[in-house]
Amino acid sequence: MLYAILCYANEETVFSWTKEEEEAVMAKLYAVQAPLAERGKLGPVGRLMPTTAATTVRKGKEEPLVLDGPFAETKEALLGFYVVDFDTLEEAVAFSKELSAVNPGSTSYEIRPFYVFRPGASST
Q: Record's superkingdom (predicted)?
């Protein structure tokens, strides 16, 4: 089953890192990801830019509203995601624990079953 693992972090912490600090954290994250990538179990991984770069389209009474920034103000924000193929939720939890151990900017990892929708194809 595919799982989406959503990485929440404190933006002030993550986006204040020096280039060297950023490279050190990313090297540790790549090391955790490598075994899954080698087995073909790691799907897309993405890092989102800060919420200050976000645009939100919110349902309005007559037509959608386009707003600058995120939907809600919060100290932690969704800053990235992984799509991984695991047989069990326990494997997804273990991977998330590994990520958490090497990522000093993360505050939590949310795990959700993930379905891919393609018109005319089955979802897996």
A: Bacteria
Domains belonging to the chain, first-starting first, are 2-113 (3.30.70.1060)
Report which of 109, 110, 107, 97 is spatially closest to residue 14, judged by C-alpha positions. 107
CB atoms near residue 50 (< 10 Å): 14
Helix (H, G, I), strand (E, B) or coil at 13: helix
Q: How far apart are CA 75 and CA 70, in angstroms?
A: 12
Q: The tokens of 46 are what?
A: 């993405």
Q: Give CA–CA dist 22/50, Å, rounded.
A: 15
Q: How far apart are CA 110 and CA 93, in angstroms?
A: 9
Chain segment 26-66, per-residue pLDDT in tens: 999 999 999 999 999 999 999 998 888 888 888 888 888 88
The CA distances from residue 71 to 26, 38, 109, 111, in Å, are: 28, 37, 20, 21
pLDDT of residue 122: 57
pTM: 0.82
Residues 6 or more apart whose Cβ sits within 8 Å of residue 16: none
